[in-house]
Design goal:
The chain is α+β, with helices and mostly antiparallel strands and 349 residues long. It has 7 helices and 18 strands. The structure holds flavin-adenine dinucleotide.
């Protein structure tokens, strides 16, 4: 299995939540429960609520920045497993996936079984249950296109709920779940096409690398391999020996604006006639290059301008200081505000 759920890494200090995050940053937890069954996760969350204890759900720890002071409450580490087929017709198969399943293992399985719809999301760290949280996306695909239902425990209503894709409110790196403590996602239903060919390739860089036109299809395995290769070149596949991957992936989302501040900027069309600008381009053109840092412990990745990385001795305080410097530089140069993509716990930019 891929190194996606790091458990108590030797270099993390004892009791530090950094042992469970891909940044390897974050102070101690008040208490920690490892939940291997959905019922266990629900009971833990329910009991904590009754006791007035704050709860943090953590799975792969690849999209959280936890403060150096840690989390003064109960961390529930989701480690539930299981994938089962719940529907099949001539064209589609629907798979119900436990929240704690390793996302990329699931993608690999769909590719091996000739199911198309998530192949371009190969190599993304973390759990299947976290993918609806920010509508995980890459290389022209988003999970919001294949998710048909999310099964969750509604902490406010103290009830189990099934939410349709429309109820999930998927947007660009967004959903009703992001920045909300209300739901504990337990299972996710993905409806995938029965095809050994990929979905039409939408992302120009991927089409170029595959040597095809945008809109063409390629064998699933080829799409997966090519995405993994592209991602590895940018430090976007976890590798414990490569500190360029000790990150949360992209630290900032690509800003969506009504009007370009300068006409020659690269951009893509976004919803509502707006345009999306690559944050990496803004950061580079504001004067921050790969490898830039304001301290030794945390630097921009040497492979990708959007990834802020722990070089080994970093702290969350240093990470956030670097993020602030970059954000101010982009604001001063372009008048555009960058927003962090990960969920910040006990800290802020
Ligand atoms: C190298 C690298 C590359 C990345 N590339 C991409 C990319 O291409 N595209 C992309 O979209 N993201 C990317 N990410 C971000 C991250 O991998 C995804 O957001 C992933 O889905 C997070 O999963 P996780 O299990 O690690 O979530 P965690 O980090 O454990 O949690 C993230 C948030 O979701 C909440 N959460 C997690 N599971 C549940 C649950 N079951 N129920 C309720 N809340 C939950 C947590 O409380 C937290 O707020 C990348 C990260 C890294 C480190």
């Amino acid at each position: 299995m891929s190194e996606v759920f790091p458990e108590q890494r030797v270099e993390a200090s004892p009791g530090s939540l950094g042992a469970y995050t891909t940044l390897r940053l974050g102070g101690p937890a008040g208490a920690l429960t490892v939940a291997t069954e959905p019922g266990e996760a629900v009971t833990t969350v329910r009991n904590a609520a009754a006791a007035g204890e704050p709860v943090l759900i953590l799975a792969g720890g690849s999209n959280v920045v936890i403060g150096d002071a840690g989390f003064a409450g109960r961390v529930v580490l989701l480690r539930t497993r299981g994938i089962r087929e719940i529907a099949r017709d001539a064209t589609f198969v629907t798979l119900r996936v436990a929240a704690g399943e390793v996302w990329d293992d699931f993608v690999a399985r769909t590719v091996a079984e000739g199911l198309s719809g998530v192949e371009c999301l190969s190599g993304i760290p973390g759990s299947a249950g976290a993918t609806p949280i920010q509508n995980v996306g890459a290389y022209g695909q988003e999970v919001g296109h294949t998710i048909v239902a999310v099964h969750a425990y509604d902490r406010e209503a103290d009830a189990m709920v099934t939410m349709t894709a429309a109820e999930c409110g998927f947007g660009y790196r967004a959903s009703v779940f992001k920045y909300s403590d209300r739901w504990l996602v337990l299972e996710v239903d993905f409806r995938l096409a029965r095809s050994t060919e990929s979905e039409p390739i939408r992302y120009a860089e991927l089409a170029r690398q595959l040597g095809v036109e945008a809109g063409d299809r390629v064998p699933l395995e080829r799409a997966r391999e090519t995405v993994l290769k592209l991602r590895a070149g940018k430090g976007m596949v976890l590798d414990p020996d490569d500190r360029d991957t000790w990150s949360v992936g992209s630290f900032f989302t690509n800003p969506v604006v009504g009007e370009l501040p300068e006409p020659d900027m690269p951009h893509w069309p976004a919803a509502g006639g707006r345009v999306k600008i690559p944050a990496a381009w803004l950061i580079e053109h504001a004067g921050f290059s790969k490898g830039f840092g304001v301290s030794e412990g945390v630097r921009i990745s040497s492979k990708h301008t959007l990834a802020l990385t722990n070089r080994g001795s970093g702290t969350t305080t240093e990470l956030l200081e670097l993020a602030r410097v970059i954000r101010a530089g982009v604001r001063d140069r372009f008048g555009i505000e960058l927003h962090p993509e990960p969920v910040l716990v006990g800290c802020q930019v």
